[in-house]
């Protein structure tokens, strides 16, 4: 009987290891978010988010997402953001984006819990992910909505995912 218990516990340990070891792999997602003070995003507040791309990561392609977290009290179905991107070579690109957050039929398009909603909106082409050079990329996010300050926005950020 004692030998059987040892055998069952060995199988249990082996089974548990099979599920936990793959979880220790390399993470292929980089995400950084900035908190909006008092959930009121002024056009003067332009959070800057930086990512360092290592030389071994330059062979990969990346999908880039804007991350927005807001409360249910947010008044609009969209948000206009100007994304300033500075590459390691110092080249700056400005991209005004009109990001859809809700529709009349579906309501909020992001995932929600209670009265907080999060949107991850891809801003790169799904068919042509970005190839990034080694070095530091800086993203500055600017609110360009007519309402200033823009109420009920909690966080904004950038997410990089390695394309598959």
TrEMBL record:
Domain of life, per lineage: Bacteria
NCBIfam families: GldH_lipo (TIGR03511)
Source species: Niastella yeongjuensis
Pfam families linked to this entry: GldH_lipo
Signal peptide boundaries: 1-22
Entry keyword annotation includes Cell cycle: no
Alphabetic keyword roster: Signal
InterPro entries per record: Motility-assoc_lipoprot_GldH (IPR020018)
Keyword Nucleotidyltransferase among record annotations: no
Designated name of the protein: Gliding motility lipoprotein GldH
């Amino acid at each position: 009987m004692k030998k059987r218990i040892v055998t069952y516990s060995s199988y249990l340990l082996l089974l548990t290891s099979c599920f936990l070891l793959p979880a220790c792999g390399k993470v292929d997602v980089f995400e950084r978010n900035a908190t909006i003070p008092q959930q009121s995003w002024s056009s003067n507040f332009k959070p800057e988010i930086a990512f360092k791309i290592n030389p071994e990561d330059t062979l990969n392609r990346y999908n880039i997402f804007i991350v927005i977290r807001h409360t249910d009290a947010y008044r609009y179905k969209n948000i206009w953001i100007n994304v300033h991107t500075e590459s390691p070579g110092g080249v700056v690109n400005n991209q005004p984006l009109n990001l859809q957050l809700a529709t009349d039929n579906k309501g909020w398009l992001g995932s929600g819990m209670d009265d907080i909603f999060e949107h991850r909106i891809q801003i790169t082409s799904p068919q042509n992910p970005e190839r990034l050079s080694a070095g530091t990329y800086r993203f500055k996010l600017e609110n360009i909505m007519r309402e200033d300050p823009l109420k009920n926005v909690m966080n904004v950020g950038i997410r990089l995912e390695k394309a598959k």
